Amino acid sequence: MSARADEPPTPARPSGTRVARNGPQRVARSRAAPLVGAASFALTVVLAGCVPDASTSPSSAAPSAQSGSAQKDDRPARMPGGTLLVTDFGADTVTFVDPSGRGTSGRQSVEVGTAPYGIVLGADGTAWVATAEGVAAVDTVTRRRTALVPYETDTGPVTTGEYRGGGMGIALSPDGRTVYVGVNVPGAHGTLEAIDTGRREVVETVPVGRRPFDVDVSGDGRRIYATGHDSFDVTVVEAAAWTSRRIEVAPYGTEGGLGSWLKPHYAAVRPSDGALLLPFEGERLAVVDPDTEQVRIERMTADTHQHGVAVADDGTLFVVGTGSIDPSVDAGPSLTVRAPDGEERVIPLDGPHEDVVVTADGRTAYVSGGFTRDGHWDGLSVVDVATGDVTRVPAGTRPLGMVILGSAAPAGTGAGAG
């Protein structure tokens, strides 16, 4: 969104769960439509938000390959089960976090590059991180940065804040051989860059929309999708020919342009039919057919500005509500849990959040608190999906992107997309 469209702070809401299914509901900006379910792969990457941060200070020093909390020797660090790796958008690091909240002794930060956004995990244990300076490769066993791949695209001076140039959405091909990163060019359309994970260099680039918040890959790896936040679109890139085409995704129209609140943010790919799922405002779910370029609108029930998405193996869709555009008519921050049959449970959260990852069994959701406006906090909300109980855990510095270590899916499943 444009800097002149800052989102207002939203009040915290008490804990609890709202349940809705096809019932009457006030829809401030939409007409009701039938609910649908979603079936897709387990998402292992999350990206950043849509509201501005005023900071534009360049990085004071290039990141090193050493950990911010240096290892005493070269022996592999022990990796507890369920450990999260989060991107610290308010710093130049990623942080290993024990989401159980049992103390801080296990937390360790590794310098990766200025203002890291998205992160994706490979089956070999390498985490790939989109920063303002390039894409960092992090060995999650030794907990060291092993490479920083510079972008081919000229993004201007290295700065911080949501509008900084550099990588945003990031995804991994099913075979693990290629990382795809959406590169923001301030004031212009972005690019999608392909990085060969073996050679660790950019091998292809193609123009995409403005501020590519999210990048996803089809289950068969033949297509890459870049969601252009400021251009109301998804760019479809054919991996074999490296050609692209644009699909407009604007269920509220494009009136307001850069100043509009009603833009696409994040997407998930449904493996049953390859459709793209993009939530809007807790009211509309855009279901995009990349073959026909048709956009079908389904109804949602949370009535809140929505960002991050994840899809569990059983088809359950998780959507983060960051808070209201207008507190007089909209609801506050939440996590929507949308079952495959279309039933939605809306779990209130305390304060703005950005994105979400889900454990393989679908029982626990982690929601990042590092929003890029006032109201962010340095931690995660751990949500028990069955009960709706929420526990807050300290984590990093404005944590945005997250992966669950050990959760990278086998080649061919499509997991690892943004």
> Sheet bearing the most strands, described?
5 strands, antiparallel
Radius of gyration: 19 Å
Q: What form results from the Cα inertia axes?
A: globular
N-to-C SSE string, H for helix and E for strand: EEEEEEEEEEEEEEEEEEEEEEEEEEEEE
What's the helical proportion of residues? under 10%
Continuous helix count: 0
Number of strands: 29
Whole-number mean pLDDT? 81
Distance between the first and last residues' Cα: 20 Å
Structure description:
Helices cover 0% and strands 37% of the residues. The two termini are 20 Å apart. It is mainly β. 55% of the residues are buried. Residues 1-81 and 409-418 have low confidence and may be disordered. The strands form seven sheets. A five-stranded antiparallel beta sheet has the order 1-24-23-22-21, with no helix packed on it. A four-stranded antiparallel beta sheet has the order 4-3-2-29, with no helix packed on it. Strands 5-6-7-8 form a four-stranded antiparallel beta sheet, with no helix packed on it. The chain is globular and about 50 Å long. The protein has strands spanning 18-20, 84-88, 93-97, 108-111, 119-121, 126-130, 135-139, 144-149, 166-172, 178-184, 191-196, 201-207, 212-217, 223-228, 233-238, 243-248, 268-269, 276-280, 284-288, 295-299, 305-311, 317-323, 334-338, 344-348, 356-358, 364-368, 379-384, 390-394, 399-404. Strand 23 and strand 24 (344-348) form a beta hairpin. It contains no helices and 29 strands.
